[in-house]
């Protein structure tokens, strides 16, 4: 009989067994955010040379995190959610059509 400790260890091992290439989308969105933020902060500091370097650094860090998160959500997470919702709606629609001809559609178009 397995105890809770063994189950926890097997879960940790399966979590560690993810491959390095599963992290590529996160790394690429982070790099994209850093590059775009560097370009924007560089342009800002070029137009405003009196700005303190600490302010520029804080602006860069905040902007790169925000751009990275938005890039990851818009191009990676949101399309997956939309695709999942479409599949669920299609499966519900197929179930409704298999029920019989007298069943009204869930979402009348």
Overall shape: it is: elongated
How many strands appear in the DSSP assignment?
A: 0
- Count the helices. How many? 3
Poorly predicted runs: none
Radius of gyration: 24 Å
In angstroms, what separates the terminal alpha carbons?
A: 55 Å
**Structural class label:** mainly alpha
The residue fraction in helices comes out at over 70%
Query: Strand-and-helix sequence, N→C?
Result: HHH
* Proportion of residues in β-strands: under 5%
- Mean pLDDT comes to 80
**Mind describing the biggest β-sheet?**
none
Give an overview of the whole structure:
The chain has 109 residues and is mostly helical. It contains 3 helices and no strands. Helix 2 (24-47) crosses helix 3.
């Amino acid at each position: 009989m397995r105890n809770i400790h063994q189950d926890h260890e097997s879960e940790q091992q399966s979590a560690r067994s993810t491959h390095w290439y599963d992290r590529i989308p996160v790394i690429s969105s982070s790099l994209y955010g850093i590059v775009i933020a560097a370009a924007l902060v560089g342009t800002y500091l070029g137009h405003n040379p009196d700005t303190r370097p600490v302010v520029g650094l804080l602006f860069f860090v905040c902007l790169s995190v925000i751009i990275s998160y938005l890039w990851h959500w818009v191009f990676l997470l949101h399309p997956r959610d939309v695709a999942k919702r479409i599949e669920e709606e299609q499966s519900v629609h197929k179930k409704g059509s298999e029920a019989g001809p007298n069943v009204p559609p869930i979402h009348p178009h």
